Amino acid sequence: MSDRPIRITVDGEALTGIAGQSVAGVLLAAGRISWRTTRSGAPRGVFCGIGACFDCLLTVNDVPDVRACRRPAADGDEIRTQSREENT
Ligand code: FES
């Protein structure tokens, strides 16, 4: 794995990561353990970590419902967290 740094924004906040990390990896490394809520308000972030549970959804470069655990983070990605209401 390269040590090349990357920079993404999450809800307008700049975060740095390393090329090859998933979006979830960058978020977790930044101390974020949840970034979405269910309709009941329960926090969600990474649960399975392998793309099976869909708990880690967020919007990447205006594409909604991207699984953070499966999407490699790319330099310049603009990410928005999303709530359950956006999907219904
Ligand atoms: S954590 Fe389960 S799909 Fe991403």
UniProtKB/TrEMBL annotation:
Pfam families: Fer2_4
Molecular function per GO: iron-sulfur cluster binding; oxidoreductase activity
Keywords: Oxidoreductase
InterPro entries for this protein: 2Fe-2S-bd_N, 2Fe-2S_ferredoxin-like_sf
Domain of life, source organism: Bacteria
SUPFAM superfamilies in UniProt: 2Fe-2S ferredoxin-like (SSF54292)
This protein's name: Putative molibdopterin-dependent oxidoreductase YjgC
Species of origin: Amycolatopsis umgeniensis
Organism classification: Bacteria, Bacillati, Actinomycetota, Actinomycetes, Pseudonocardiales
